[in-house]
Amino acid sequence: MAAYADLTTSTLQGVLDDYGLGRAGKIDGLANGGAEVRCIFETSKGRYLLRVAQAAREYDIKREIELLGFLSKHSFPCPWPLQDRNGRFYREYQRRYLSIYRWSPGQALSVAGLNAAQLENAGRALANLHTIGRAYKKGIDNRYNFEQVVDLYRRLRPRLPSFFGKISRLLDEEFDYLRRHLEQRLPKGIIHGDLFAERLLFRGDRLTSVLAFESATRGKFIADLATAVNALCFLGDQYSLLRFRSLMLGYESLRALSLAEWDAFPNELRYSSLRFLVTGLQEWLNGGACGNGSRDFREFLDRLRVLRREKSGGMDELLMAMATGYDYRKYQKIKTTDRNHVAVCDAK
């Protein structure tokens, strides 16, 4: 097995000995996820995932594990780290944190590879997370709230190349707009924060696991849903109304959006795009390759231009779906009530 960040076969075997997992057999290799290194391997006792994660503080790792434990106890499909012989869920390794998970069956698909049933199940899983997460009382810092992203952009802006003039002006305008129009008084709780296609494992149409909770925090449910729409419903150079409807069908089967959330949806889509655009620019300016453990800022620049209606890309259809989503459900409820009333009258 090739070494990455000095993680070698002998190092891996030493870790496995502490877990009592036997000898490592087939090793699928190391995947560099920027801030993470992942290694999938097999032993006589099963298939496992070794994760070496970078975190600013040990507290962040503890927080993530506590949340995963809570979700697992409530039957949410997510990974759960194994304990070694000393009862540890993780260990420090070269200023990172190493942990081992039993491998969840399933396959991560590309965005284009997701079908309507899988999108519906992804939406249902997100609503399930939001519903379960309401009972989670421990505080989790929101590292991606508006003010923190503003602060990050202020530090990045002087470093942007001169030929980024149009992009800088767009970002300036967008921050000014969202400062005035983002609604904060909306339902909140535990959110995933990064629900992209590679975070979802499927067996057929069934979703078997939701991965990567390092960005999980306490925040607005609609903000989490907006990130999922940006991640899963934008294909090529436009938003897909069919994908959006499938995702929302799954989500609202467990948790219906309020009128205020429907109203806030367009601006939350813009903020989600802005967040990933700014963090992608940070990675790019720091010398990271786009798409290597980060999000390509150009993809979110395209989304933001569509959302600002500066270019075509399905936004009109999306806005119409959002504008009618709440009213349609309300109409259906009234219609059902009327039918029930008629049935009662006929019975009398």
Structure characterization notes:
The structure is a single chain. With 348 residues, this protein is an alpha+beta fold. It folds into two domains: 9-102, Phosphorylase Kinase, domain 1 (2-Layer Sandwich), CATH 3.30.200.20; 116-334, Aminoglycoside phosphotransferase (APH), C-terminal lobe (Aminoglycoside 3'-phosphotransferase, Chain: A, domain 2). Helices cover 48% and strands 15% of the residues. The protein is built from ten helices and eleven strands. The protein has helices at 9-19, 58-73, 116-133, 146-156, 165-181, 221-232, 241-252, 259-285, 297-307, 315-347; strands at residues 27-32, 36-43, 46-53, 91-93, 96-102, 188-191, 200-203, 206-210, 217-220, 234-235, 238-239. The strands form four sheets. It has a five-stranded antiparallel sheet with strand order 1-2-3-5-4, with no helix packed on it. A hairpin with a 3-residue loop joins strand 1 (27-32) and strand 2 (36-43). The protein is globular. It starts with 8 loop residues before the first helix and ends with a helix. Mean pLDDT is 85; it is low at 1-5, 289-293 and 334-348.
